Amino acid sequence: MKATRRRAAVxxxxxxxxxxxxxxxxxxxxxxxxxxxxxxxxxxxxxxxGSAVSEAELSQRLGIGRTPIREALQRLARELLVQILPRRGxxxxxxxxxxxxxxxxxxxxxxxLVARSAARRALPEEREHFAALxxxxxxxxxxxxxxxFMRTDHEFNELCVLAARNxxxxxxxxxIQPLSRRFxxxxxxxxxDMPEAAKLHAAIARAVAAGKEEQAAQATxxxxxxxxxxxxxxxxxxx
Length: 239
Known about the structure:
This protein has 10 helices and 3 strands; from the N terminus they run ααβααββαααααα. With 239 residues, the chain is mainly α.
């Protein structure tokens, strides 16, 4: 029981550390809250591809001021999840299979590097957090809980870039991961096996927790093979 409580405390502390990777002033905290909420709404299709939204509408919906909303939307625009159009407002970006396949080419190389680096450089408390995330992925797989999987995946990605300690890889990961999560969420019921995807993520987390660089890289390749097959299956053609 003591070990379980300690793992929970470490995971909670690390989530706070990840969330505060930027200066922790009040405005920035609100911007991070706005970004996290909007990113999840876009990824889970509560804000549908092609839909138009406004700062005022989102501010009222989230109970957050317009300045943090505007800053969060600017970040989402850099990540290609929204388009900010003069005099037309904000449009949620469409989803494109060919774009997703090109993205996966980059993701495979960068994610392999991040997994190796995290396995090598993670601090002891980060390794405990990776082990806890592996268990969370496995619980999501057993329950077939897509929302729990998506949230755990988001936390896992943030911890990976923190533990890898490579700002260039982190910037690339933060650009491609939200697009990947949204594409998966749109199509997984047609062509993906969510429990299998969760187990593949768990394998990476366990390898990083154990400091096994090559095993982490191989587990990443297995995950990306699965994701690429799933992406191609959404159109039933080899693009």
